[in-house]
Amino acid sequence: MEDDDAELWVRVRQGDELALAALFDRYEGRLFRHASRLLSHREDAKDAVTVAFFELWRKRASVRLVEGSPLPWLVNTVAHCARNLERSGRRYRALLDRAPVAEMAVTPSGHDDSGVLAALKRLPEREQAVVVLAVLEGYAEREVAQVLGIPAGTVKSRLARAKAKLRNDITLEGARS
């Protein structure tokens, strides 16, 4: 983390909204790309990032930093927000399906040719968080353990389990094609 990031975080902890805005400007693009990988709709990805920053502000006194950076915490929070948005979207679509409407427009969704993102979304939340932080975002296992508040050994076992599930899932998907 750059020196001015450390200064920004101190200011955020003291309630400085401009410091939060500076962190938002610095991390928003990366977090948006991450949310876009998990969600089908661009607007939902924007919402996930926005909610994560609201949560960062709300929980600023208890956020776990990794090497002085709130980014891993934000990445994990964006993933949680994305899952919540997907869940609420499914409930909303189910409600629309039951509504007495003569004809409904079909919403286009993004397509994942490789099936990797679909397989990732099917993982349990705990394993998905470890994969996202360790594999997609490139954090070391000890950093992932720190941000998730779990032992490093648990990170290793969840990561191994998740990789095996992904491998099997993608192999089965490829065999069906």
Automatic annotation (TrEMBL):
Gene3D superfamilies: 1.10.1740.10, Winged helix-like DNA-binding domain superfamily/Winged helix DNA-binding domain (1.10.10.10). Keywords: DNA-binding, Sigma factor, Transcription, Transcription regulation. Residues 116-166 form the RNA polymerase sigma factor 70 region 4 type domain. Residues 23-91 form the RNA polymerase sigma-70 region domain. NCBIfam families: sigma70-ECF. Belongs to the sigma-70 factor family. ECF subfamily. This is Sigma-70 family RNA polymerase sigma factor. It comes from Microbacterium mcarthurae.
